[in-house]
Amino acid sequence: MKKHTSPELPGEGDTDYARYMRLDTLLSLQRHPDDMVHRDELLFQVVHQSSELWLKLAVAEIDEAAVLVGKDDLPGAELLLGRASLAIRLVTDQLDMFRYLKPADFEAMKPALGNGSGAESPGWRDAQKASRRLGLAFQAHLREREIDPATLYPGVATDSAYRLAEAMIEWDEQVALWRVRHYTIAIRIGGHGMIGTPNSPADWLAKLIDYRFFPELWQLRVLGGHAGA
């Protein structure tokens, strides 16, 4: 066993690990058991708080990818998009924790949530903004190099513009899969308003299922695939 050593980093905590990870702060961000109206508030907060952290990472990767596109480093941007897509996949996977949350449990938790809604997530709003910046950077790259977007598909694996376009599609798809999973979980819990009820969270999620950040790439991909068939 490794011998315990005195921490060298500044901050709170008995170890450098605790200080670097700021565990005292991180683990105090959830409601205290004495303040909870239902024990599953911890589950609810951990899933959403960790989602915001993964989204923070994903947005940072997308933003840097947009910068790299502007610098003509498409392979570097492609790599960062892969990391962002994996982050969203992890956000989606952890939604499975809500399978253990019954409608009655969620109903009991509602007083603690106030008027809060996932639609207010700053992480998802930032992801939308970052995706728009990336899309604009890619469009500018194609214009500056006089690349006709219609020629991207069918593509070849050695073409950096094609590979980046595919990475953008993958990012878009992972977000879309999250929307579908989020919608089905919302309906499963049953505390998100009737399907079709105007302005209900369930109705809002349903309308977003078909939304894409890069619809032109999806269309070009299908048209190019037909052309190459």
UniProtKB/TrEMBL annotation:
UniProt-listed InterPro entries: Trp/Indoleamine_2_3_dOase-like, Trp_2_3_dOase
Transmembrane segments: none
Protein name as annotated: Tryptophan 2,3-dioxygenase family protein
Organism for this UniProt entry: Hamadaea flava
